[in-house]
Amino acid sequence: MERRGTCLRISPCLNGGRCSNIPESYTCDCPEIWKGSRCENVVASCKSSPCHNEGSCVNKVEDFECHCSSGWDGKTCEEDVQPPILENCSANLIVNATEKTKLVVWAEPVFSDPMNSELRLSSNYESPQSVFPWGDFTITYAATKIKNGLCTECTFNISVRPTPCEPLKQPENGALLCNGWDNAYGTFCLVGCRSNFTIHPPNRYGNWLICGASGNWSSQAPDCSLNMEKEGDILAFHPSYTDFSFDECHNTTKLRQIFISEMTSHPDLSEFCQLYQACNDVNQVNVLC
Protein backbone atom coordinates (compact mmCIF):
# COMPACT_ATOMS: atom_id res chain seq x y z
CA MET A 1 0.00 0.00 0.00
CA GLU A 2 1.35 3.43 -1.04
CA ARG A 3 2.00 6.00 1.67
CA ARG A 4 0.28 9.37 1.35
CA GLY A 5 2.45 12.44 0.97
CA THR A 6 5.65 10.64 0.00
CA CYS A 7 7.59 10.08 -3.20
CA LEU A 8 5.89 7.23 -5.01
CA ARG A 9 7.22 4.83 -7.57
CA ILE A 10 5.87 7.25 -10.18
CA SER A 11 7.21 10.61 -9.03
CA PRO A 12 4.65 13.36 -8.37
CA CYS A 13 7.25 15.88 -9.61
CA LEU A 14 6.76 16.97 -13.21
CA ASN A 15 9.13 18.11 -15.93
CA GLY A 16 12.16 16.30 -14.57
CA GLY A 17 11.79 17.47 -10.99
CA ARG A 18 13.51 15.29 -8.35
CA CYS A 19 11.30 14.10 -5.49
CA SER A 20 12.47 14.00 -1.83
CA ASN A 21 10.51 12.49 1.04
CA ILE A 22 9.74 14.55 4.10
CA PRO A 23 7.51 13.51 7.01
CA GLU A 24 4.00 12.88 5.63
CA SER A 25 4.89 14.73 2.39
CA TYR A 26 7.51 15.33 -0.27
CA THR A 27 9.35 18.15 -1.98
CA CYS A 28 10.30 18.61 -5.61
CA ASP A 29 13.71 19.89 -6.62
CA CYS A 30 12.87 21.53 -9.94
CA PRO A 31 15.10 22.14 -12.98
CA GLU A 32 16.09 25.74 -13.67
CA ILE A 33 13.20 26.76 -15.88
CA TRP A 34 10.44 25.17 -13.73
CA LYS A 35 8.86 26.08 -10.42
CA GLY A 36 5.89 25.18 -8.24
CA SER A 37 5.17 22.39 -5.74
CA ARG A 38 5.29 19.83 -8.56
CA CYS A 39 7.51 21.79 -11.04
CA GLU A 40 4.43 22.54 -13.08
CA ASN A 41 5.03 26.24 -13.85
CA VAL A 42 7.57 27.69 -16.22
CA VAL A 43 9.87 30.29 -14.71
CA ALA A 44 9.17 33.65 -16.42
CA SER A 45 12.61 34.08 -17.94
CA CYS A 46 14.38 33.58 -21.23
CA LYS A 47 15.75 30.20 -20.05
CA SER A 48 12.43 28.67 -21.07
CA SER A 49 12.86 29.94 -24.66
CA PRO A 50 9.37 31.48 -24.64
CA CYS A 51 9.70 33.53 -27.84
CA HIS A 52 8.38 31.90 -30.99
CA ASN A 53 8.94 32.54 -34.69
CA GLU A 54 12.55 33.68 -34.32
CA GLY A 55 11.73 36.33 -31.72
CA SER A 56 14.62 37.40 -29.44
CA CYS A 57 14.17 37.30 -25.66
CA VAL A 58 15.20 39.87 -23.04
CA ASN A 59 15.17 38.99 -19.32
CA LYS A 60 13.31 41.20 -16.86
CA VAL A 61 12.65 40.92 -13.12
CA GLU A 62 10.66 37.68 -12.85
CA ASP A 63 9.55 38.22 -16.43
CA PHE A 64 10.77 38.37 -20.00
CA GLU A 65 10.11 40.42 -23.12
CA CYS A 66 10.08 39.15 -26.69
CA HIS A 67 11.35 41.29 -29.53
CA CYS A 68 9.45 39.84 -32.46
CA SER A 69 10.68 39.42 -36.01
CA SER A 70 8.84 41.18 -38.82
CA GLY A 71 5.23 40.10 -39.19
CA TRP A 72 4.79 38.71 -35.66
CA ASP A 73 3.43 40.20 -32.43
CA GLY A 74 2.11 39.18 -29.01
CA LYS A 75 3.68 38.26 -25.67
CA THR A 76 5.59 35.35 -27.18
CA CYS A 77 5.49 36.44 -30.86
CA GLU A 78 2.70 33.98 -31.51
CA GLU A 79 0.37 36.40 -33.35
CA ASP A 80 0.61 36.70 -37.14
CA VAL A 81 0.21 40.40 -38.05
CA GLN A 82 1.74 40.24 -41.54
CA PRO A 83 -0.79 41.22 -44.25
CA PRO A 84 -0.36 39.71 -47.71
CA ILE A 85 2.50 41.21 -49.72
CA LEU A 86 1.59 42.98 -52.96
CA GLU A 87 3.75 43.25 -56.08
CA ASN A 88 3.11 44.51 -59.62
CA CYS A 89 0.08 46.68 -58.83
CA SER A 90 -0.64 48.66 -61.98
CA ALA A 91 -0.50 52.45 -62.05
CA ASN A 92 -3.50 54.39 -63.35
CA LEU A 93 -3.98 53.95 -67.10
CA ILE A 94 -5.12 56.54 -69.64
CA VAL A 95 -6.14 54.94 -72.94
CA ASN A 96 -7.09 56.79 -76.12
CA ALA A 97 -9.81 55.34 -78.33
CA THR A 98 -10.77 56.42 -81.84
CA GLU A 99 -13.98 54.43 -81.46
CA LYS A 100 -16.54 54.67 -78.65
CA THR A 101 -15.23 51.46 -77.03
CA LYS A 102 -11.75 50.09 -76.44
CA LEU A 103 -10.31 46.72 -75.40
CA VAL A 104 -7.93 47.41 -72.50
CA VAL A 105 -5.46 44.82 -71.16
CA TRP A 106 -3.60 45.25 -67.86
CA ALA A 107 -1.13 43.28 -65.74
CA GLU A 108 -2.53 41.34 -62.79
CA PRO A 109 -0.96 42.04 -59.38
CA VAL A 110 0.89 39.31 -57.50
CA PHE A 111 0.11 38.53 -53.83
CA SER A 112 2.17 36.36 -51.48
CA ASP A 113 2.50 35.63 -47.77
CA PRO A 114 5.89 35.00 -46.07
CA MET A 115 4.06 33.09 -43.31
CA ASN A 116 2.78 30.61 -45.92
CA SER A 117 -0.82 31.21 -44.94
CA GLU A 118 -3.60 30.38 -47.37
CA LEU A 119 -4.88 33.43 -49.28
CA ARG A 120 -8.31 34.09 -50.78
CA LEU A 121 -8.03 36.19 -53.96
CA SER A 122 -10.81 38.34 -55.40
CA SER A 123 -11.33 41.01 -58.07
CA ASN A 124 -14.19 42.97 -59.61
CA TYR A 125 -13.07 41.73 -63.05
CA GLU A 126 -12.81 38.05 -63.94
CA SER A 127 -9.85 38.51 -66.30
CA PRO A 128 -7.18 41.21 -66.77
CA GLN A 129 -8.91 42.71 -69.80
CA SER A 130 -12.24 44.23 -70.73
CA VAL A 131 -13.95 46.34 -73.38
CA PHE A 132 -14.66 49.81 -71.97
CA PRO A 133 -16.63 52.76 -73.36
CA TRP A 134 -15.34 56.29 -72.88
CA GLY A 135 -15.23 57.05 -69.17
CA ASP A 136 -13.46 56.20 -65.90
CA PHE A 137 -13.34 52.75 -64.33
CA THR A 138 -11.85 51.40 -61.08
CA ILE A 139 -10.11 48.01 -61.00
CA THR A 140 -9.71 46.32 -57.61
CA TYR A 141 -7.83 43.19 -56.57
CA ALA A 142 -7.66 41.88 -52.98
CA ALA A 143 -5.91 39.08 -51.09
CA THR A 144 -7.22 38.00 -47.68
CA LYS A 145 -5.62 35.66 -45.17
CA ILE A 146 -8.20 33.03 -44.42
CA LYS A 147 -6.94 32.34 -40.89
CA ASN A 148 -7.11 35.91 -39.56
CA GLY A 149 -8.77 38.15 -42.17
CA LEU A 150 -5.77 40.39 -42.87
CA CYS A 151 -6.23 41.94 -46.30
CA THR A 152 -4.17 43.78 -48.91
CA GLU A 153 -5.71 45.58 -51.90
CA CYS A 154 -4.50 46.78 -55.29
CA THR A 155 -6.68 49.52 -56.79
CA PHE A 156 -6.10 51.54 -59.95
CA ASN A 157 -8.16 53.52 -62.46
CA ILE A 158 -8.56 53.11 -66.21
CA SER A 159 -9.60 56.24 -68.11
CA VAL A 160 -10.76 55.79 -71.70
CA ARG A 161 -10.71 58.99 -73.72
CA PRO A 162 -11.04 59.95 -77.38
CA THR A 163 -7.76 60.55 -79.19
CA PRO A 164 -6.54 64.01 -78.10
CA CYS A 165 -6.60 66.89 -80.59
CA GLU A 166 -3.58 68.96 -81.55
CA PRO A 167 -4.01 72.63 -80.55
CA LEU A 168 -5.33 74.87 -83.30
CA LYS A 169 -3.21 77.80 -84.47
CA GLN A 170 -4.49 81.18 -83.34
CA PRO A 171 -5.95 82.98 -86.35
CA GLU A 172 -4.12 86.06 -87.53
CA ASN A 173 -5.90 89.23 -86.33
CA GLY A 174 -8.46 87.03 -84.61
CA ALA A 175 -9.47 84.95 -81.62
CA LEU A 176 -10.18 81.28 -81.17
CA LEU A 177 -13.11 80.36 -78.90
CA CYS A 178 -13.42 76.74 -77.70
CA ASN A 179 -15.31 74.79 -75.06
CA GLY A 180 -13.32 74.73 -71.82
CA TRP A 181 -15.39 71.93 -70.28
CA ASP A 182 -14.90 68.20 -70.91
CA ASN A 183 -12.83 68.83 -74.02
CA ALA A 184 -11.32 65.38 -73.61
CA TYR A 185 -14.53 64.12 -75.21
CA GLY A 186 -14.54 66.63 -78.06
CA THR A 187 -13.31 70.14 -78.84
CA PHE A 188 -15.54 72.64 -80.63
CA CYS A 189 -14.27 76.05 -81.72
CA LEU A 190 -15.40 79.26 -83.45
CA VAL A 191 -13.33 82.14 -84.84
CA GLY A 192 -13.85 85.84 -84.07
CA CYS A 193 -11.99 88.77 -85.68
CA ARG A 194 -10.64 92.06 -84.43
CA SER A 195 -12.54 95.15 -85.48
CA ASN A 196 -11.93 96.17 -89.11
CA PHE A 197 -10.74 92.67 -90.01
CA THR A 198 -12.77 89.81 -91.37
CA ILE A 199 -12.45 86.26 -92.58
CA HIS A 200 -11.87 85.68 -96.25
CA PRO A 201 -14.09 84.35 -97.65
CA PRO A 202 -16.54 85.83 -95.11
CA ASN A 203 -19.10 83.04 -95.34
CA ARG A 204 -16.90 81.01 -92.99
CA TYR A 205 -18.21 83.01 -90.02
CA GLY A 206 -20.07 80.74 -87.64
CA ASN A 207 -18.55 77.57 -89.12
CA TRP A 208 -17.62 75.15 -86.37
CA LEU A 209 -14.13 73.67 -86.15
CA ILE A 210 -14.63 70.23 -84.63
CA CYS A 211 -12.21 67.61 -83.34
CA GLY A 212 -13.74 64.33 -82.16
CA ALA A 213 -12.56 60.82 -81.32
CA SER A 214 -10.25 60.56 -84.33
CA GLY A 215 -8.05 63.39 -83.03
CA ASN A 216 -8.34 65.22 -86.37
CA TRP A 217 -9.86 68.63 -86.92
CA SER A 218 -12.66 69.10 -89.45
CA SER A 219 -10.69 72.08 -90.77
CA GLN A 220 -8.05 74.56 -89.67
CA ALA A 221 -8.87 77.98 -88.22
CA PRO A 222 -9.12 80.65 -90.94
CA ASP A 223 -7.18 83.88 -90.52
CA CYS A 224 -8.88 87.27 -90.29
CA SER A 225 -6.86 88.37 -93.28
CA LEU A 226 -9.19 90.84 -94.95
CA ASN A 227 -8.85 94.42 -93.70
CA MET A 228 -12.14 96.32 -94.01
CA GLU A 229 -11.66 100.04 -93.57
CA LYS A 230 -15.29 101.08 -93.28
CA GLU A 231 -17.90 99.41 -91.11
CA GLY A 232 -20.50 99.87 -93.83
CA ASP A 233 -18.37 97.90 -96.23
CA ILE A 234 -18.00 95.16 -93.67
CA LEU A 235 -21.73 94.91 -93.03
CA ALA A 236 -22.39 94.77 -96.72
CA PHE A 237 -19.73 92.11 -97.12
CA HIS A 238 -21.20 89.87 -94.45
CA PRO A 239 -24.07 90.88 -92.13
CA SER A 240 -22.98 88.71 -89.18
CA TYR A 241 -19.53 90.29 -88.99
CA THR A 242 -20.32 92.44 -85.96
CA ASP A 243 -21.47 89.40 -83.98
CA PHE A 244 -18.02 87.88 -84.27
CA SER A 245 -15.89 91.02 -83.86
CA PHE A 246 -14.06 92.33 -80.80
CA ASP A 247 -11.93 95.33 -79.92
CA GLU A 248 -9.67 94.11 -77.11
CA CYS A 249 -8.63 90.62 -76.15
CA HIS A 250 -9.46 91.22 -72.49
CA ASN A 251 -13.04 92.14 -73.41
CA THR A 252 -14.45 89.08 -75.15
CA THR A 253 -17.67 88.65 -73.16
CA LYS A 254 -19.77 89.20 -76.27
CA LEU A 255 -17.82 86.53 -78.16
CA ARG A 256 -18.25 84.06 -75.30
CA GLN A 257 -21.99 84.73 -75.27
CA ILE A 258 -22.16 84.19 -79.04
CA PHE A 259 -20.29 80.91 -78.59
CA ILE A 260 -22.79 79.63 -76.00
CA SER A 261 -25.73 80.81 -78.08
CA GLU A 262 -24.43 79.16 -81.25
CA MET A 263 -23.71 75.87 -79.48
CA THR A 264 -27.03 75.61 -77.65
CA SER A 265 -28.96 76.24 -80.89
CA HIS A 266 -26.88 73.93 -83.08
CA PRO A 267 -28.87 70.82 -84.19
CA ASP A 268 -26.00 68.46 -83.30
CA LEU A 269 -23.78 70.27 -80.79
CA SER A 270 -26.67 71.22 -78.54
CA GLU A 271 -26.89 67.59 -77.39
CA PHE A 272 -23.26 67.71 -76.23
CA CYS A 273 -23.96 71.02 -74.57
CA GLN A 274 -26.94 69.64 -72.64
CA LEU A 275 -24.76 66.97 -71.03
CA TYR A 276 -22.72 69.51 -69.10
CA GLN A 277 -23.93 72.39 -66.94
CA ALA A 278 -20.74 74.32 -67.70
CA CYS A 279 -22.09 74.89 -71.19
CA ASN A 280 -24.28 77.66 -69.73
CA ASP A 281 -21.31 79.48 -68.19
CA VAL A 282 -19.54 82.02 -70.41
CA ASN A 283 -16.53 81.83 -68.10
CA GLN A 284 -16.04 78.22 -69.19
CA VAL A 285 -15.37 79.28 -72.78
CA ASN A 286 -11.63 79.34 -73.56
CA VAL A 287 -10.43 82.33 -75.61
CA LEU A 288 -7.08 82.42 -77.42
CA CYS A 289 -6.25 85.80 -78.93
Automatic annotation (TrEMBL):
Residues 163-226 form the Sushi domain. Gene3D superfamilies: Complement Module, domain 1 (2.10.70.10), Laminin (2.10.25.10). Disulfide bonds join C30-C39, C68-C77. Keywords: Disulfide bond, EGF-like domain, Repeat, Signal, Sushi. Residues 79-162 form the HYR domain. CDD domains: CCP, EGF_CA. Residues 3-40, 42-78 form the EGF-like domain. This is FAT3-like protein. It comes from Mya arenaria (Soft-shell clam).
